[in-house]
Amino acid sequence: KEIEMVAATGTLQTYTVKGNREDLQDYIYNIDPTDTPMIMLIGEDNATSIKHEWSTDSLIATDSGNAQIEGDDYAAATQTPPPRLENYCQISAKAVSVSRTQRKMNHAAIDDMLDYQIVRNGKSLKRDAETIICGNQGYNVGAATVARKLRSWESWVTSNINANNVTTTAQGATAGATTAGANAAGATVGRTDASTSRDVTEAMLKDVLQKVYSSGGDVSHIMTGPVNKQNLSAFSGRSSARQNIEEDKIQGAAHLYASDFGDLTIIPNRFNRERSILVVDPEYASVAYFDRMHEEDLSKTGDSDRKFLIMEYTLCMKNEAAHGAIFDLTTS
Q1: Which of 2, 251, 31, 38 is closest to 133 using CA atoms?
Q2: What is the pTM of this model?
Q3: C-alpha angle 103/109/110, rounded to 5°?
Q4: Which end of the chain is more exposed for a tag (fewer CB within 10 A), N or C?
């Protein structure tokens, strides 16, 4: 039988005391990820206009019957000038407003709430940019009341893909289009996702890698969401792997894929669309900044301090045929 516990009559307890100081740790815990694998991988360029342009080229197709008569007079073949491609700089921003009173308060773990919120929003802005660049967004040239939008990664890659809807015309611009890249078919809406999905297989990856190699590419990285990172690690090739590991360690991950065309580093990316696996050659893509992320003051309209963080940038897909992708995958 439990003994009933009763406080002595007249005992002052914490429940009624109003002057006890709070026990609030001088730390703020936040595990939200701030890494941006794609932006870090492909590097950066400078943009000098809101429309960023570049050129691509390809060699004349090989001719297995190229045999000429001695002393022949040669006629020049028709030459094709390099096509010009383009993408538009998108403005992304975060605004912060903190009251004068709150900035003067003694807040746990924060010296100045405005400074803290600026740092916090800066990290969020980087995450936004990573998501947009890796995504399937079509471009928009913008207007007085319409925001400009850049053309995202998935919308560009069309030559070397494995997808459920490879015959769909709205999957993006074709490689080497004679018109500007942003004006080619599908560029304003992104590729069309298939209505059905499938589990990733090694055959799909090999298909894409073979297409990239045949196109002249030399990919070195695989970018994937967390679900398909684990699916890649489960490829059957792992069953025959032999390596020395500690006896109290289970090796269940694969960070390198050795293909017939070279080794590829597998990078998990939380901001990659889970339904897509991107195969990347970092040399042939970059983030072009018209205006790098910086802090600006907003006009003072009341008893608060207001600032915003802003950046203007685009994706420079230097040659989409240097990359590949597996689309329309299951996400769980």
Answers
A1: 38
A2: 0.85
A3: 25
A4: N
